[in-house]
Here is the input.
Amino acid sequence: MTRHSRRSPATPRALRIALPIVATLSIIAPLAWLWQDSRVPSAYSVMNMGYPDYGVGAMPDPGVSGPGGHMQGQMGGHHMAPTPRLVTDMIADPAQPADVRVDLVTRQQKLSIGGRSIPGFTVNGTSPGPEIRARQGQLIEVHLHNESVADGVTLHWHGVDVPNAMDGVAGVTQDAVPVGGEFTYRFVANQAGTYWYHSHQVSNPQVAGGLLGSLVVLPQSGIAQQVDVAAVAHTYGGMRTINGKVGDLRVPARAGQRVRVRVTNTDNGPMKIWTGGSYRLLATDGTDVHNPTEVTGRSVTITAGGRADVEVKVPNDGTAVTVQLSKATAVIIGAPGSDAPPVPTQPSQELDLLSYGSPAPLGFDPAHPTRRFDYRIGRRPGFVKGRPGVWWSINGRLFPHVPMYVVREGDVVVVHIKNRSGEVHPMHLHGHHEVVLARNGVAATGSPWWVDSLNVLPGETYDIAFVADNPGIWMDHCHNLKHAAQGMIAHLMYEGFDTPYRIAGPSDNQPE
Ligand code: C2O
Ligand code: CU
Here is the structure.
């Protein structure tokens, strides 16, 4: 019998019918399984998402059962308390009175931007919402009232290492606040610097629509600059703005004054900033640079969600000084009415924070980590939330089968990030600041480069380190919020923690 005779008329009719069916099934059945496997239940705990990753270097821990499946609420080995700690227990001292009290009312409404009316969100009637200012050590109390945001809202304090219950992640640290609902956030502003707040419920459209604002914490001793201005960069419906207005932001200042410009990038992609003359980069992501030197002819990259504090000096010749926030908008600082200087051309070179400033003690030893994790970002075909596509993968897996990085309080954690996905990702860990140890294997030599939001370009690797000093369950995700909504989300959890909240469920919690 020759091979092709199988398909000859001599082949039994039944087989001719069955073979294509079997072939089709053998393709469809695994696809159906993958599809089914990618769907998420109508209510589920973040504890059941993905699989526990204890990292390398952790002490063997025979008694511990990981998060996932039926194990929720029963984590814990012989060395641990028998009952899990709850994220809701992690709060600021209730006996400590508030120093700064703010009422914030969120609304879903039309915004008027650059003469156009676009759908969006406001906080106390504007977008951005009011700037919150506090002094280091003060307890901030924010009373949120959701007047009309139909999907519900939360407030996340981006870059502030708040107690876990105050982190504002819908379905993980609280329920989304429905229309008519309220929530009170209380936390001590322990670290001086530039931060921002935004909704972490349906966050991709809500942040894009302007449900955000600036948070500035001043050091006890004050700052050395005579003028201090926050510039929130945001793109509304394709229009680039600073503090909600299209066009340049004029800041009055006198000749010779030093000015601190606190730039926050609230968009999904990185932005570059540069100045006409020289500048110093005083801080990144709310942490001071050690010995920042004068820079000329270089831009600073601010990743999505990131902040940069730059210092410029108003010239003595009566002209103004310009800080460009991308090509489209600028902060122009000088005497009122002074001529806007010509737009400085964008430098071709970037300031490299790996070598900027000078070294200083970190306060811990990253050379001897107690845990090491991989966060490998890739892209592969499959199903996410039941939809076929080519999706972001973390360590080779697709949402919801993403890692739950498990640490113990006191761990010195090193994370190796590798971006093989072909696109840039602004990686953001909640509740902690991380120091960059190396990029593409090249060790950092400048000031400690502390980040909460890190721009990871295609092909790059980063080694970063942090101390596990803020117990709870924390998101560790891409701050291109479109990517997050596509499943680019992992979590960091401390052993023995649990949450009473559910993703989806009756409050329809959708953190992305
Ligand atoms: Cu700026 Cu998970 O957030
Ligand atoms: Cu991303």
